[in-house]
Every structure is written in structure tokens, then in C-alpha cells.
Amino acid sequence: MTIALTPGTFDPITRGHLDIISRASTLMDEVIVAVAESTPKHTLFSIEERTELAKQATTHMDNVRVISFDGLLVDFARKMGVSVVVKGLRAITDFEYEFQMNAINQQLDYRLETTFIMSPPEYMYLSSSIVRELAALGGDVSKFVTPEVAEALKFKFSDM
User: Fold this and answer.
1) Tens digit of pLDDT for each residue in 12-66?
2) Does 50 participate in catalysis according to the annotation?
3) Residue 17 a catalytic site member
4) Which long-range contacts (CB under 8 A, 24 or more apart) does 52-55 make?
5) Which of 17, 23, 87, 132 is catalytic?
6) What one-character DSSP code corresponds to residue 120?
7) Is residue 41 annotated as a catalytic residue, yes or no?
């Protein structure tokens, strides 16, 4: 049984993330969406909120589960019995960063493989930071996120 890990900050989870997760779920027996605490980044949503939004967005995917984690990805992967990390690639800049991360992860645990899934053209530009900025400026984010995420963004920015 192949268990894959799709890690990210998911602040918030977007339709681009969901595309990668969905496609990974057709290739793997099980996919764990690993919501990273990500202390170096200042997130809009708490780890609990990001995890809950990811759970809501993936409920229709039977072989997907969502778990938050803190610490090294390789340690979490080992703990969860994961053999493959699945990452989405949008542009060459993503590749350069993910190439470095893969090299480090291979040094930390040579058994952990990384598989890349290319984003389709409609999501190549999409990022959580673009969605946050659009929402902060009062823009319509409904094309880019689930209704639950759009509502959570609206609520978050109504408090600011």
C-alpha cells in the first residue's frame, strides 16, 4: 500500500491545492494532507482553522485524510509510514525551491521519494498569498477557493 504525503501551509487551501490532492488520490492508495504549522511564515489562519478548512475541502475524497504537523517533514513522514511526498509545480521558481527541498529530504531520509504533479494552466498562477491579497482588498475569490474558504476569508477580513 502506497501512502503519500501532500504537505503545505494551506493558508488557505485553494482549488490549485485541491487539484493536486485529487490527482494524487487517483495515483496513491492513501493521501495524507499534511498541514504544516509553519512558524517562519505569519499565517492568516491558525493551524486549527487551516486543518479544518482542508478537511472540509477534501471530504469527498475517500482515500484522503488531513492531519496537522510541526517539525521536520521527514520525521512526520516516517511516523505516518509514508514513502512518497507529492508536490505540485506551477512554474520554474517552484521547481527550484522543491528541487532544493527534495535534496535535503533525501539527505535526511534516502527512502522518502518525491513526486511532482504539474499544475494545469488554470491554476499555474494561483497561490494562497494571491487569494489572501485579493480577499483583503474585497475581491471575489469564489473561483479560486471552496465556498467554506471564501466565507472564512470574508469573516477574517471583516474583523480587520
Assistant:
1) 999 999 999 999 999 999 999 999 997 677 899 999 999 999 999 999 999 999 9
2) no
3) yes
4) 53/10, 53/12, 53/13, 53/146, 53/148, 53/149, 53/152, 54/10, 54/13
5) 17
6) P
7) yes
